[in-house]
């Protein structure tokens, strides 16, 4: 409907489901797909009726990496001048909470795309890795940084240096994913989590996302200070009045998302 060729976008209530759709290439992330994901998610981010975005792939592959066939002929001037992959950074700047629902391969750019999302849910079939070194390159969409923050130096170094993969159980144990669910329940579970988030106050969900993300960028004292400022600011919201009044009145809140 939106002229997208490599993704599908569906809306249910206040949640959006974006499915990567290049099955023949195991959802390899070519430039077209990158631009479509960024355009679609930025449009959803501007929509006040959208409270959470789920990104998913197929049963076999969330995404098997950046498109190797597209990169293979490139040279340094082309990569540098076009700022190859730079658009992916915009995904990390969305204000709407995002969920990666990962089944099958999440390799290279696929693992990096999953880590760009706020919540990472894995099917028991999920396989994570940064195998770029086997292609004579290194992670290029933040994997060396985000994997290290997620699982620590020892595991990140080993994975990036050898290209070995992690299964879902190891990924959960290492803190890369929040939960592992049976593959046939992944989509429903991700949409349920998205529905829960989308039912919260939209500005407060944005504040939570900002506050948690700030922890990666700053000192503890500054981060706590930032959180406190946001906490006080929440009292300017209609949703704070509603949320606390509903608790006192022993009824569910009816957030206006303002
Ligand atoms: N780029 C382009 N095409 C890809 C691809 C990729 N990353 N991954 C898979 N494909 C294509 C294959 O070439 C194949 O196409 P053809 O049918 O035209 O030959 C099709 O998808 C199916 O793949 P396979 O036949 O290889 O499927 P398999 O089940 O035998 O193996 C796999 C699955 C182990 C994931 C294997 O496809 C694989 O190793 N893929 C590459 C993984 C990888 O190296 N990812 C990192 C890419 S570099 C990167 O991402 C840089 C960065 O940091 C951003």
UniProtKB/TrEMBL annotation:
Keywords from the named record: Fatty acid metabolism, Lipid metabolism, Lyase
Which InterPro entries does the UniProt entry name for this protein?
ClpP/crotonase-like_dom_sf (IPR029045), Enoyl-CoA_hyd/isom_CS (IPR018376), Enoyl-CoA_hydra/iso (IPR001753), Enoyl-CoA_hydra_C (IPR014748)
Q: Which GO terms describe its biological process?
A: fatty acid beta-oxidation
* SUPFAM superfamilies in the cross-refs: ClpP/crotonase
What superkingdom heads the lineage? Bacteria
The free-text function statement in the UniProt record for this protein reads: Could possibly oxidize fatty acids using specific components.
Protein name as catalogued = Probable enoyl-CoA hydratase echA8
**Mind giving the lineage of the organism this protein is from?**
Bacteria, Bacillati, Actinomycetota, Actinomycetes, Kitasatosporales
């Amino acid at each position: 409907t939106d002229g997208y060729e490599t993704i599908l976008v569906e809306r249910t209530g206040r949640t959006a489901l974006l499915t990567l759709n290049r099955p023949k290439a195991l959802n390899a992330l070519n430039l077209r797909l990158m631009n479509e994901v960024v355009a679609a998610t930025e449009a959803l981010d501007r929509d006040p009726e959208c409270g959470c975005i789920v990104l998913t792939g197929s049963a076999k592959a969330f995404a098997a990496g950046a498109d190797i066939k597209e990169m293979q002929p490139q040279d340094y001037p082309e990569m540098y001048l076009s700022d190859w992959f730079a658009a992916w950074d915009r995904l990390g700047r969305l204000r709407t909470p995002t969920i990666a629902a990962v089944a099958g391969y999440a390799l290279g750019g696929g693992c990096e795309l999953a880590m760009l999302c706020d919540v990472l849910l894995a099917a028991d079939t999920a396989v994570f890795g940064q195998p770029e070194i086997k292609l004579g390159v290194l992670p290029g969409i933040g994997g060396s940084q985000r994997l290290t923050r997620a699982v620590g130096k020892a595991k990140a170094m080993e994975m990036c240096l050898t290209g070995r993969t992690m299964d879902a159980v190891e990924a959960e144990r290492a803190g890369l994913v929040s939960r592992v669910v049976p593959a046939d329940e992944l989509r429903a579970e991700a949409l349920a989590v998205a529905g829960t988030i989308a039912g919260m106050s939209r500005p407060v969900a944005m504040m939570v996302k900002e506050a948690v993300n700030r922890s990666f960028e700053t000192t503890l004292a500054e981060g706590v200070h930032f959180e406190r400022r946001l906490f006080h600011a929440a009292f300017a919201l209609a949703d704070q009045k509603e949320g606390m009044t509903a608790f006192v009145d022993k009824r569910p809140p009816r957030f206006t998302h303002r």
